Amino acid sequence: MSLLELKNISRQFGAIHAVEDVSFKIEPGEIVGLMGDNGAGKSTLVKMIAGNFPASSGKMVFDGREVQFSQPSDARRAGIEIVYQDLALCDNLSAAANVFLGREIMRSVGPFKFLDHRKMRERAAELFRELQSETRPRDVVKRMSGGQRQAVAIARTRLADAKLVLMDEPTAAISVRQVAEVLALIKRLKERGVAVILISHRMPDVFGVCERIMVLRRGHLVANKLASTSSPEEITALIVGAKAAA
Amino acid sequence: MNKSPDASNLDSVFSLSERSKLGEMLRSQEFWIVVAVLIIGAVVGMIAPRFLTSANMANILQNFCFTALMAIGMTPVIMTGGIDISVGSTLGLTGVLLGLFCASGYPFAVVVLFVLLVGTFVGIVNGALVSYLKLPPFIVTLGMMSLVRSQTLVVTNNQVVYDFGKAGDTLLALGSGSFLGVPNVLWAVIVSAVVMQWLLSMTKWGRYVRAIGGNENAARLSGIPVDRIKVSTYALLGAMTGMTAIFLVGWMGAATNALGQGQELQVIAATVIGGANLLGGFGTSFGAVIGSVLIEVIRNALLLAGVNPFWQGTFVGLFILFAVLLERFRSTRA
């Protein structure tokens, strides 16, 4: 059974057809690259999956049930987490505090409840160990590298035990060395059985970790094929429209 | 490149504390302001020996409290990236209403409750305009500063309130009394500072206050009720201002309609000198207290050293600039 299935999903904004008649399936533990030029509809598609806004038409099945998310928290509850491009972290807080933001572990003494700093640090350390990232739970995010920030953002999704993680350009703004670190993190998610949709402009990253590549052009899904049967040249041609479909 | 350290190696990384406790202290703004207070005290003590007398110390410890109480309340507001410049006016309004209600014969407890509610109400209005209508906090509270000060004049009809009726005895006893040799208002500062710091570092509310100041958008995406938390910080500051009015009027024995005029600047200065960042995200209640002490020490020291009091503002101003520079220096080096 597929983890996520989209059937004839469309979305219009007034007269603009941002996404038109898109259908695809994502299997559990699969890493899929979603590519396309600016304005091709990638963000719109991802935002529908994440529950930011509903589809104009079409059906979405997640984990065996037909779903209609009206807000991001619905999607999150179902097991879909999104890692935002700007990461949505609080620079002034520690890595552990960021991992647990909005889902703090509390300790109660009598009628009072307060933050269990130690348990949160320990649990955060466990998650970073699982991701094999050298990120210290106590460190303030402000002083972290791009790769460590990604580790914090990804640890957030692990905390929720998400089944599907949507990643929006995770390697756009970091150094080459850290890109390798982030790609390793994505593979680590796969090992845990988590499916990942990776939105990226960077061909080497997509071919480095994705098993399957989907290409959107002007709202249409023009390709959905195994990475092993394609090439960066073919994908580029599909993105810019030199090749109609594959 | 793609190094994957083994598990035992990672454990040693995790257990590393980023910096020692001593290093942490040397980097904190609060520490350096304490040092500044001690240096000023030593220097002024040599010039004017009266400064170090116990009578004068008691004087300082009484005087700084009113600013400190409000600065403790101001801390979470500033931590969320907000500001409230209406607190001086709110102090005035709650002060005269306290007097008027005492004079009309209500029991003291009822008057106290009422005054706290008025302060909270002003805070809620400020907070709601800032959070739900997304208006800039500076402008909202600037408007409120004018509105509330005007209402202070309206309700008193420009008269000084000094006859507090039956509840007056309790009010004056509270304001000028002491417990175990420590003035009541200083107890209020100590308890408020401890409770506030506990709230800031041990509760979800405190964590969210900090998070909102760090990245409001991220806080929202994490499902934090950003607007309600912001309103709560302004409401709490309003209540603390009402409480300050009770101690202040009880101590002075009269409520004038100029009560608290200009005090908002002292409160904000104290909070910022103590290490709160106006951009949000940082601050402690201890910092607010020590910032208030510094301002009062400067005022008192200049008086005793025989310096023309017109110079006070210059020194307080220099310390605000010094505090901001210190903050900049710390954050770029960190």
Automatic annotation (TrEMBL), chain A:
Q: Name the Gene3D superfamilies on file.
A: P-loop containing nucleotide triphosphate hydrolases (3.40.50.300)
Query: What keywords tag this UniProt record?
Result: ATP-binding, Nucleotide-binding
- Superkingdom of source: Bacteria
Recorded GO MF terms: ATP binding; ATP hydrolysis activity
Annotated ranges, domain ABC transporter: 4-243
Q: Which InterPro entries match?
A: AAA+_ATPase, ABC_carbohydrate_import_ATPase, ABC_transporter-like_ATP-bd, P-loop_NTPase
**SMART domains assigned:** AAA
Q: Name one Pfam family in it.
A: ABC_tran
Q: Which PANTHER family would you find in this protein's record?
A: CARBOHYDRATE TRANSPORT ATP-BINDING PROTEIN MG119-RELATED, SUGAR ABC TRANSPORTER ATP-BINDING PROTEIN
Entry protein name: Sugar (Ribose) ABC transporter ATP-binding protein
In its UniProt entry, the species of origin is given as: Mesorhizobium plurifarium
Automatic annotation (TrEMBL), chain B:
Top-level lineage group:
Bacteria
Q: How does it sit in the membrane?
A: Multi-pass membrane protein
Q: Which residues cross the membrane?
A: 31-48, 60-79, 179-200, 234-255, 267-295, 302-326
> Mind telling me which Pfam families this protein's record contains?
BPD_transp_2
InterPro entries per record: ABC_transp_permease
Keyword terms, alphabetized = Cell inner membrane, Cell membrane, Membrane, Transmembrane, Transmembrane helix, Transport
Offer a single GO CC term for the protein.
plasma membrane
Coiled-coil positions are: none
From the Swiss-Prot or TrEMBL record, state where the protein is found: Cell membrane
GO MF annotations in UniProt: transmembrane transporter activity
Q: Identify this protein by name.
A: D-ribose transporter subunit membrane component of ABC superfamily
